[in-house]
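We modelled the chain as a single entity of 567 amino acids. Its sequence is:
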Amino acid sequence: MKALFSDFAQLAQSISDTRSVNEKIHFLSEYLKGISSLEERKIAVRFLAEGAFPSIENKRLGIGHQTIAKAACVFLELNYELVFKTCKSASGSSSETIEKLMEAWPIGIQKREPKEVSLKEILKFYEELAAVKKKEHRIDKLFEMWANLSAIEIKYLIRIMHQYSLRIGFDEKNILKGLSQFYGKSLESVRYVHMLCGSMEETLEHCELDKLEEIEFSYFKPLAFMLASPINQANSIDVSEYVCEEKFDGMRCQVHVSDGVVKLFSRDMNEVSDSFPELKPYFLERIKKNVILDGEICVFKNDTILPFQLLQKRMGVKKPTKSLLQEYPVTFISYDILALESDLVMTLSFISRRKILESFCKEQSLSYSQVYDLTTEETIQERFELAKNHGNEGLMLKKKTSKYEYGQRGNSWLKVKKPGGSLDTVILYAHAGSGKRGGMYSDFTLGVRSGFKEDGMPFFVPIGKAYGGFTNDELKRLNVEIKKTIADRFGPTLGLIPSIVVELEFEEVQLNKRTKAGYTLRLPRFKAIRWDLSIQDTDSLDDVKALFEEQMSRERLGNSVEPYIIE
């Protein structure tokens, strides 16, 4: 019996609807039990974890959210501006909006006659869609498939198209845990296989065929990055167990060099080599051995790391112009080594890896981070202030005895940072949470003043989304208060009458021409809910602009002053 896409869509919805991680894993196990074919199980976990195509292929369909939304309006014969955008602004989700309209709009009901479509047929559809070049022909293929699907299937068909997250509160870590339990394998061995192959479907296949021990390391398959946890109080650790280095204002990158080939991978495992073409000859001219390095790409000019916002002008640009390369030159700063020749060294302690890294970088004339011993909490504060004066984000504390804990956050790497600023904002939208926060509104869109209406009341534009920084008690009170100010309701989102003021803290202000404000906040989170303030007390778009200009004009010490990079 073939595995149906309708069953997959129901699995995804069931996982989304429950708060319990154990229940989510149980749903996955029961679903896999009902599929006898290895090929179909592989398709299912790919769709669940990675999207239409394996993440290691870096393949995309290239159909944006707006294109799909406008196509849905043509299919449904409704007005994009008057109907769809209004519904979407309330729901916060294009795919959810399309689902609701497909099941409620009369024309959407008339045009569809759901059939039993298999997982294999959906996979074939994605492959055929990727081969179609003309936009109008792609839309035609979408319409053909939509006519055969239920509304919920259409929602997940769209979400799978956009790769990675289905937004159901079930991440890669939990899928691996589910595979571990379903096949009766140790979680650590399943995680290790996934780290080496970078593919969820390959991981499932190794589990199914009982070949976890046969996995081999190879170059050009990005390894899961080790992640850092935030630390607020330095005295909560024994500082003598750690060394520190400055936290650079750049983009995390993994460099693979083998047999004269260089590839760069971002933290989301995508290859970004084409965006930084000057780094290929940099490595090829120097490196004579096979190696995998972990480090940071930064805009580096006049002996100084420049703001992350300037690096963003290079990110995602596959064919940077000569002027872009000259105006925003980049460098790579190594701070860890994962493999050398045929040996995985990531299982060694940090101090051991560090010795290998320093020796390798000196031998190959590569830039690498400076590390400092820590003796007291005062040392951390002194180093932190120097890092900020260099224009860097803060400090990284790294435990001397720690292995490279791929794909995990823990206390082995700790980041010491302070907020870049704060703004008094107002809650504009409340979005329903998932998982442990299911049943509550826990994600919030916040705005700043952007002028006044005719009645003298402030007009607000969104400036960022935040879903952390509050206590459970504060969240409960928020849920009570926001229900008194509901202006609109659609799906899992509430549009609110501006009334609740929140002091947001954030790392920095970023230019974003795609938003009404023209700016967004990087990593915003609640600092305090200001029940004592009114909406007239909130900050304005002019305040945001002033913060951005101050941030970009801030003087930075060059690397020659207390060097943080060894060149």
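As a brief sanity check on the tokenised model: The first helix runs from residue 5 to 17. The chain has 20 helices and 22 strands.
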